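Internal tracking record. Fields below are filled automatically when a chain is submitted to the structure queue. Please do not edit lines marked as system-generated. If the sequence contains nonstandard residues, flag them in the REMARKS field before resubmitting.
Queue: standard
Priority: normal
Entity type: single polypeptide chain
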Amino acid sequence: MSSIGTYKIRPAGRHILTIGRDLIQDSYAAVVELVKNAYDADSPDVNIEFLAKPDGSGYSIVITDHGHGMSRDTVINKWMVPSTRDKLERGRSPSGRIMQGRKGVGRYAASILGKDLLLETITPEGEKTVLLVEWHTFEDAQYLDDVEILIETAMGAEHSGTRLSMTGDSQLLKDWDQQQFNKLRFELKKLISPVSVAINDAGNDDEFRISLDIVGFSDVQDVTENIEPFPIFDLFDYRIAGRIGADGKGTLIYSLQKARNTTDEKISFDFNGSTGCGELLFDLRVYDRDKEAIDLLIKRGLKDSIGNYVGKNQARQLLTVSNGIGVYRNGFRIRPHGDPGFDWIELDKKRVQNPSRKIGSDQIIGYVLIQSEEQSDLVEKSSRDGLKQNSAFERLKEITEKVIAKLEERRFIYRQKAGISRPALRVEKEFERLFSFEVLKKDVRSKLTRGGIDKETADEIIEIISRDAEDKNKVAEDIRQAVAIYQGQATLGKIINVILHEGRRPLNYFRNQIPNLRYWYDSFLKTGDARKLDTIMPIAEGVGQNAEVFVKLFSRLDPLAAGKRTARKPLDLKKNILNALSVFEEEMKIQNVVARVDGPDNFLFSSWQQDIYAIFTNLFENSIYWMNEKKVQIREITVEVVTDSDTLLHIDYRDTGPGIEPDLIASDVIFEPQFSTKPSGTGLGLAIAGEAANRSGLELKAFESEQGAWFRLQLKTEEE
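SYSTEM-GENERATED OUTPUT FOLLOWS
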């Protein structure tokens, strides 16, 4: 016997309980899910009340909000439909909140909290709908659609909102101990953004208040409190905050809380013209995430409202869920800017390139306040999922990056001085320290003498050490020269844009004219007309002239590209500095930069050509970049070689650019590898220049100057 038919899948009655209990496994997590529903209902607040019966036979949980409530139709066709896509499809609440509940099952978390659920919900029009769910009926029913729920609806004059009442028996009561309530309070605190609370001080942000009452539970402290976020926003390690006007000028304050007795630093900003995105108010706070930093964060006061310190894992979790740079207008956040993980400044991408100096998106909590669309040209997308990526938005990103860079510079310096970060490796100094045996020989001789060893034996031991030191220094010199080659090639990489720019013109000539040359050549072969040569020859001459551009360019770059180091030898110092300057010949013409090198002709200085190039190429590249970046009107570079007969006294290098901040000069941090004030800089330029100077017996120093940058190359002293 055979039969064919169609049938429907019928969920079992207990399917609803399976959804709630499998997806929401903890009682405190179930409460959080219901609180999120209050948020999605645009309620300004939610009250959670736990009341234990005096005889210990059970308890009640009541969760009340003042949101927009639900109509009878919504209750029947959405609230009572498991896994509805309603919130997922809407995405946002009527007031613009991003929906926290997306799976359509959070309300069934109530089955974990009690034996029943009484729902009372009122719309703004006064329509009140009431229903009672007894969860055991789902256990008893064979199929889900066998369960019938009575729904009552009537009109009234009560305020809109929703009230959920649940009752539990003595068995469920046991779940609620002090540890469970502590977990609940921790999760509730995380729901409130510390940034939103800070913004509220000034206006009308989308506030969401949570209050909690716990009464009568055995061995549990009674609680009546307004849930406040953990004070993590005030416990920053580093902070930069202030105003930048629409004219691009402003003042920000840098603060440090990792050390005692620190003073705030005032930083003046001038972006040389309009911001292009209106007036901006910043408050950005940065946190280190290493073990010691987390310990200090907790010690500075990361407690809950009862006064208990949070644990280390909780502290890290708080940073993770709180991070983000919010963009606010009129007190309201423009989502998703500020959501954890929404890295609109691309901090993580930059940090990968320079982890010692750059911060990651999980280290910063803060906001930027922007003006109206008419004043800022920062326009919200019609889909309400952020700002349109127009020129104003790009300008906002650029300015925010520069503000963060000022904090990163100061953070880097502090961490270096405090010994928090790993010291930067300065190759030349490390070689000198590693392969210097004089102190060792002195200590060994002293020990031998005190031990009664005769002078002849001591001399033999010292001689053994000296021979070993000589062998090791030969190896060290080979390594030093290899490093010099790599640094020269790294310098070449830094100025690749100059090479590409200068090479683009002849390449374009070849691309455009060689097909013409081929055309006229074929025409000549076909016709034999000698007049065709009059057209061919100028093209051929142009090919030769443009090829010469490449020859000259490559000859100027050859010292940096060399794969082998020649012996140190006397060099015409002025001539080699001019040759290094010639690398930027075309770039300086385009940027209107004038440069001169003063000093005696034919003065010889013992060095390597690659190192002279490495020093000055990096200095020239920095000057040209910053004079262009800051739109300096007068653009000049001067190099002065000062000698006394056959002795070099010093070389002064100056430009008319924006100069270097005194703090950066005093800390010597500008010569540290990985430190750079360029937005996407690698921090290699001055570090390489300093290393190259050391190899030549020179020291590169920076000095404060009334105008522009001032560097001096001078001979190292005996101590150095």
